[in-house]
Amino acid sequence: MKKRIDFILYYLFILIAGCFCATFVYVQYIGCTHFVTGNMFHPAKEIVLAAFFQSVPLVLLCVPLLLAVYKIRHLYNPVWSVISFALMCAFSWGILYPLAETGKKSACGNGSILLNTGEIPLSGGYFRKSAEAVYYFTDESENKVADVMLLHSPENPDKSGGFMKLDVSENSDFYKNAFPFRDSCVKESLNDIPYEIIGCIDNILKAAEDAWQNGIIAWACFCSLCLALASSYSYIKMSTWRMVNYLAVVLTNMIILVFNSLYYSGFAGMRTFLKNALYGNGRLAFFSSRNIDIPLCILNVAAAVAVICIGCSVTAVTKRRQQDRGGYES
């Protein structure tokens, strides 16, 4: 009983501590992506609120991984361990995640409560680089257009030293070259790898938001991702070395998350092929008309089955070898 209570307390701890830490990280992320050289950054209420509603789904996304990692070291009755793990994952994705999406929509509406980075004015009096061109911003940009002096441009060397109007809106080359930051000066000063990782996670969080808005069936299909992530639980006793089990669980979750993120952000050809194969000639019109992603659901379920089969097989072999040696701990 004590271990079960400890498991529940651990679950509550990762929810509370995870939301606190993730909110802090997202505030820094939003601050850096919205920061403009020469301006002060103040984490306003809107930024903290947006960060919180991004952090809750992120923590719930990581629940299967964190619970499986906990079970590697704190495994008690195998049957009740599986049941408690499954119940916690189902509670997180079946109740808490939809509540988080509902709360986010109530607080933020259908759009973002943050200002689009393309609408943030760029301060004057600074040198900024876009691709190979170098500009000096003579004044603060207004109406998504900045007054600049072109200092260097391999494409237009004859215009160097001249004044011009530069488009800095979200559709401009300047904006795209500075992405995910608003200011290219910030991009040159910081490593954008952490921001690319957060961008990959945001692909999944945006897909979750769309799935919830498309109805229960779409949400159930999205929850196939939870099944795929939770399947890594089958690896918690695959080796007598705990570090191997930790690595197996973490790597499996990372691979599944990266694949799902790439499925939403790339793999356009594969998505089109799979959807045409399933929805072609009017087949499954109910799902296609509601934007329900059956192909990804099938892939996630197949991945879950494969992971469970591999984990159970390797665990059985390990158990058999240890029983022969007389040293297996169930």
TrEMBL record:
Ranges that cross the membrane: 7-27, 47-67, 79-100, 216-236, 243-264, 292-317
Name of this chain's protein: Uncharacterized protein
Protein keywords: Membrane, Transmembrane, Transmembrane helix
Species of provenance: Treponema porcinum
Top-rank taxon: Bacteria
